Amino acid sequence: MILVSESARLYRQEVRGNPDEPQAYERDGSGGAGDGAFAVNYAPTCYYPGGIFEELPAIASKFLRSPDVSGQAWENVTKTQSTPNSVKKLLRERHGLGVTFLIPSENQRPWSPPVGYQCVYESYFRDDTKLWFPIPRLITSYARPRDAAISQFLNGSWRIAVALMVMAAEIDVSLSVRVFEELTSVSSLDDGLLLIKMRPSYSVIGRHPNKTPDWQRSYFFVKCDDSAFEDPPDDDYCVLWNTLLGRTSSLTPDHPTSRDYPEDFLTSARAVARLAQEHWGNISWERVHRSIDRISRSNYPLSANKTKRRISLFTKEEQKKINEERKMRGLPDLSAMMMVKINLPSVELPAPSNEMAVADTTDASPRPQDSSAGTTTLAPKKKKGGEETP
User: Ranges of Polar residues compositional bias (predicted)?
Assistant: First the structure.
């Protein structure tokens, strides 16, 4: 029998209500909940103040999803290597108070969490990615309109998100979903995974790890509540992997133009895009922790625009000068020089560190375990009519 302190009991009652009653989720159509549900003693565990972990009542079988879903099978995805001890250690290190988790059974896979849960990888919260709890709103807001599961993204994808959120917060800029979309592109890999990369013209992050060994081997399920997510996924949030995203243009989310979107979008996007390039190795946990409060105050409006054409954040001449400046090394204040040369509105930017340098990575054919999000520093190719090719 697990002994729980009175403070933990009060915390549970205040934040979660009565845990003895299973939450009444409706069938969301995203998995096999209730269809041939299998019997398993599936008890979640919650992390309470004081370093206390309590095992909660088992989830009813009707809320479980079967991993056997048509189109949801990849050889590179095997049973999880996460254990109760490994997840408890992670939650202690990341101060995940209030997070409720489940260890998948031997047959469950990332696309089969119980109703009301999402799958995440331990590597998302380790040094190679540096996500935190509660998971920032940008992550859920980016995946939702793409009808993609959070677990479908390579850890290098969320590494890009973390770095951009931190860099934007340090210059007091809100990195909205719209800004993030304009600075990045997403592609689908043959193993069902999705890869987010910086667009070549806006490559402000360099020297990513080329590979995180076994990054997707350890995964677990987290309850969709305020302790685990800033913006908890609802019942309609996707858990199945989207096999068409990045392959079918009709499933690519709309990209608003400046005429259809608030002016502060362009201001924010330009402020981030003209930052001097930062090395991933310089995005420390200390910088992340200092930025979390600013990031959590950001707003992420969704767009109702119907065009898919991207916006050019800079004119052709401005972009040419920015690219030329990024090729130069050892400048004492590269950001200031860039702003003066292209005559952009002044934005108070942090002085670049000694580690900042030009991008030295190039795109390579992604492999199943490759978490690289490297980009080239070449200007984007042009189609007829002047449209950029990401």
Answer: 362-378
In a domain, 197, yes or no: yes
Highest mean pLDDT among 204-218, 314-328, 365-379: 204-218
Q: Which amino acid makes up residue 290?
A: R
The range of the structural domain enclosing residue 62 comes to 31-389
- For residues 118 and 214, the answer to whether their CB atoms sit within 8 Å is no
113-149 pLDDT, tens digit per residue, is 999 999 999 999 999 999 999 999 999 999 998 889 9
Q: How many helices (H) and strands (E) would you count in the chain?
A: 9, 11
Listed in sequence order, the residues at least 6 apart from 255 whose beta carbon sits closer than 8 Å to its beta carbon are 181, 182, 305, 307, 308, 309, 310, 311
Distance of CA 281 to the CA centre of its chain: 18
1 lies in some domain = no
- Residue 5 forms part of a structural domain: no
Q: How many domains does the chain have?
A: 1
